[in-house]
Design a protein that fits this description.
This protein is of the alpha+beta class. Helices cover 41% and strands 13% of the residues.
Length: 126
Amino acid sequence: MGRVWGKNTKPELVVRRMLHAFGYRYRLHRQDSPGSSDPVFPARRRVIFVHGFYWHRHSDPKCLDGRAPKSNTSNWDPKLRRKTERNQQHMAALRRAGWDVFVVWKCDTKSREVREARLTNFLDGR
């Protein structure tokens, strides 16, 4: 568990480098917003969450990496369920406060074209 990163993961860095290359400027891990989202765009009132498969329970059937643990399920299921509930609460709180929320899954970072199109559409309000 000590080797699990909470910030500056590879998918986050991929997204942040792309955003910076396109000229978007952002703040990171703002503690004053629910969920401590990854890139935050205060002037645009937009936030992006970059989620990994395991901790955030990716449930897309096309994604082979989003699977539940097979061992010690009595320990992991409640923890992962609570993490998912917390994610939903944080996103709902942000939306109630007038923020637009976008989630990027780890598998979305693999396709450059898809990643660029989806993120720029979200940030430009399309």
